[in-house]
Automatic annotation (TrEMBL):
Its EC number is 1.6.5.11. NCBIfam families: PRK07539.1-2. The gene is nuoE. The lineage of its organism: Bacteria, Bacillati, Bacillota, Clostridia, Eubacteriales. It is an enzyme of class 1 (oxidoreductase). [2Fe-2S] cluster binds at residues 88, 93, 129, 133. One of its GO terms (molecular function) is 2 iron, 2 sulfur cluster binding. The keyword Metal-binding applies. Binds 1 [2Fe-2S] cluster. This is NADH-quinone oxidoreductase subunit NuoE. It comes from Ligaoa zhengdingensis. InterPro entries: NADP_DH_HndA-like (IPR028431), NuoE-like (IPR002023), NuoE_dom (IPR042128), NuoE_N (IPR041921), Thioredoxin-like_sf (IPR036249).
Length: 164
C-alpha cells in the first residue's frame, strides 16, 4: 500500500503567525523546541513546508529541524483527520482481537497507522491502554468510545462518520 499524501493547506495567516513565533524566539538559546511546539499548535502537525520555513528563518539545516521533529514523540509529521481513530493495542484489547480491528481499519481507510486519508476526514493511530479493559477490544473516534468490537463492526462504525 502506497503512503497517502495529504496536500499541505497552510494559510497566509498561519504563516504570519509562524514567522511571529520565530521572531519571538530567535535569540533564545534552544529556540528550535519552543518554535516547533508552537508551529505544531498553529498547523496541527509539522509538514515539510513548515520545517523548511523554520530552517530558513533560523539559518539552520533542514536536517536539524527534521531530526528534532522526528526524535520527540510529541511532534507529528502527519495531519490528523476530522475524525481521529485510535485503536487500543494494549494487552487486554489485543488478546481479544484489536489487532484485527486495526488491520481492517487500515484496509478500509487505505492508510497505515499514523496517516490521514487524502480527504482529511480520518486519521488512524494505535494506542496503549485507555482504561476500558472491560470493554475490550476498544477504539475511540475523537471522544466517542466503541467497545466489544469485532472486525465486522468496522464498516458500520465508519459509515456513521462517512456522511458527516
Amino acid at each position: 500500500m502506497a503512503k497517502t499524501c495529504v496536500p499541505f493547506r497552510g494559510t497566509k495567516e498561519q504563516e504570519e503567525a509562524l514567522l511571529k513565533v520565530i521572531e519571538n524566539h530567535r535569540e533564545q538559546k534552544g529556540a528550535l523546541m519552543p518554535i516547533l511546539q508552537e508551529a505544531q499548535e498553529i498547523y496541527g502537525y509539522l509538514p515539510i513546508e513548515v520545517q523548511k520555513i523554520i530552517a530558513l528563518q533560523l539559518d539552520i539545516p533542514l536536517e536539524e529541524v527534521y531530526g528534532v521533529a522526528t526524535f520527540y514523540s510529541q511532534f507529528t509529521l502527519n495531519p490528523k483527520g476530522q475524525y481521529k481513530i485510535s485503536v487500543c493495542l494494549g494487552t487486554a484489547c489485543y488478546v481479544k482481537g484489536s489487532g484485527d480491528v486495526y488491520d481492517r481499519l487500515q484496509q478500509r481507510l487505505g492508510i497505515k497507522g499514523g496517516e490521514c486519508t487524502p480527504d482529511g476526514k480520518f486519521s488512524l493511530e494505535a494506542c496503549r491502554c485507555i482504561g476500558a479493559c472491560g470493554l475490550a477490544p476498544v477504539l475511540t473516534i475523537n471522544d466517542e468510545v466503541y467497545g466489544r468490537l469485532t472486525v465486522d463492526d468496522v464498516d458500520t462504525i465508519l459509515a456513521k462518520y462517512a456522511d458527516k
